[in-house]
Design goal:
Pyrimidine Nucleoside Phosphorylase, Chain A, domain 2; 2 domains; 7-stranded mixed beta sheet; about 45% helix; globular; transferase; Nuc_phospho_transferase; anthranilate phosphoribosyltransferase activity; Anthranilate_Pribosyl_Tfrase
Length: about 350
């Protein structure tokens, strides 16, 4: 048992009236001790559930991100700042995920793009990105970080697979399953950038207070370029059945050392892309639908792919406005260039 960790646990787990938030340094110390198994399984489980009940602060999440930056894997040397598309590690269960198609659209235009995640994860145990990649003919498992760096530089797309590239993080999967609730680490994963250098991070969320935590944590880490999306099931996928609530943080034009945050409300119907969300019924059906989109077939999933792809092409600076981005995304999909990108990635493994 770690006496030092017990002190940190007591601080966050002392109850409604006496518990207190950790400092950035203390939060970093606590996560480091959990990842490196200096805290016992009982201590880890107690900390995760106590921290969830108390709710993390942006400062605590900044400290935890410091540890992921210190101990986690990194890709680097992109030709331009990449787009980091984040996705809840415990997957999807209700709506079809668009993140992979969005990543392929971006990389097909030369925008370096990084996704990350693991295998099926508690508590939702939903369909994960790695599983979808596998069914599309790309298995990231076992590919070394050095080889992944080469693939990233060759294809403009990289995938950080937790079991392969960040085994320390896997030490917390068991406790996550046993406590039965998402811990604050799940929020941390939605704003983690496994890239060494400037990048744009697209962070999805469900509950509005989460966005505030994102902003505080990322600003403390001097991350000036990020996007927040009240997306589908906590992902950065834009909905089509409601107004998209988006925040865009950019370096200030007058002073790049500071940044500005802009609220953007996008109405899909205004652009001709409103509609019902595509339900997630089974993995087999999902893969068949994605393949149909890659072959240029029209339908609801094609509309969703264009809507997401067009928005992120605009965010990445490929297109001057969203309308142009939507048109470009449609061309990339219907003319087979996104399918060609998937094939190029498969051939590079």
């Amino acid at each position: 048992m770690s006496d030092r960790f017990r002190t940190l646990l007591k601080k966050v787990g002392s109850g409604t009236h006496t518990s207190a938030a950790l400092t950035r340094e203390e939060a970093a110390e606590a996560l480091r001790m959990m990842l490196q198994q200096e805290a016992t399984p009982v201590q880890v489980g107690a900390f995760l559930i106590a921290h969830r009940i108390r709710r993390p602060t942006g400062e605590e999440l900044a400290g935890m991100l410091d540890v992921y930056a210190e101990l986690g894997p990194h890709l680097t040397n992109a030709v331009r700042p990449p787009m980091i598309l984040t996705h809840p590690y415990d997957g999807r269960s209700r709506t079809v995920p668009m993140t992979i198609l969005t990543g392929l659209i971006l990389s097909a235009t030369g925008v370096p793009t990084i996704l990350h995640g693991g295998d099926r994860m508690p508590t939702k145990e939903g369909i994960c990105l790695h599983e979808i990649w596998q069914q599309l003919g790309i298995n990231w498992e076992g590919i070394s970080l050095i080889r992944m760096q080469e693939i990233f530089q060759t294809t403009d797309l990289g995938f950080i697979h937790l079991p392969t590239h960040f085994p320390l993080a896997m030490n917390l999967v068991g406790p996550r399953r046993e406590i039965g609730k998402r811990p604050p680490i799940a929020t941390l994963e939605l704003m983690w950038s496994p890239y060494l250098g400037d990048a744009t991070i697209a962070c999805g969320y469900v509950h509005p207070p989460t966005e505030s935590m994102f902003r505080t944590a990322l600003e403390l880490r001097n991350q000036r370029q990020f996007i927040t999306v009240k997306g589908l099931e906590g992902s950065c996928d834009l909905p089509r059945d409601r107004t998209c609530i988006i925040g865009i943080n950019r370096p200030s034009i007058d002073n790049p050392e500071t940044s500005t945050f802009e609220r953007l409300l996008l109405h899909p119907h205004d652009y001709g892309y409103g509609g019902k969300e595509v339900p997630l019924n089974s993995l087999d059906e999902l893969i068949n639908n994605i393949k149909a989109v890659l072959e240029g077939e029209p339908g609801e999933l094609m509309q969703a792919a264009i809507w997401n792809g067009g928005f992120y092409l605009w965010c990445a600076g490929v297109c001057a406005d969203i309308e142009t981005g939507l048109k470009h995304a449609q061309e990339l999909l219907t003319q087979g260039m996104v399918a060609q990108k998937l094939e190029a990635i498969a051939n590079s493994l």
